[in-house]
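Dock inosine-5'-diphosphate; give full complex structure.
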Amino acid sequence: MAIERTLSIIKPDAVAKNVIGEIISRFEKAGLKVVNARLQQLTREEAEGFYAVHKERPFFNDLVEFMISGPVFVQVLEGENAIAKNRELMGATDPKKAAPGTIRADFAESIDANAVHGSDAPETAAVEIAYFFA
Ligand code: IDP
């Protein structure tokens, strides 16, 4: 299996809840290594740029407002199959549909305040890692 890198963001709701450590612990227990990380307050421009792919979606403005509502913890995770493994640990976008024991099932409030972001494919992982850790 390939060693991959993926971008993970612990979103403002989870940072505010004081569960950064609990979330990182899940990654580490699953064999993912934190190889770069930073707590950061995103600017509106940075949040809009990061989610540019969703610019035409009805929830875009709310998503940007949420992402700048407090600091986020951005990190690069490395390990075997890191992209899919991270997505599996995160659970479905809507916490109501997320499998029990996943990060979103345990820590997310709603589909917009859903605790974590994770790259969804090798191409997006490369772009997203470069966006924050050039
Ligand atoms: P993902 O984060 O699970 O990859 P995406 O479909 O890429 O999900 O959506 C990006 C983010 O946009 C989600 O994590 C969530 O915060 C927000 N979002 C997605 N769909 C909705 C929606 O229907 N209403 C409100 N926010 C949404």
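Observed: Strands lie at 3-10, 33-40, 72-80, 116-118.
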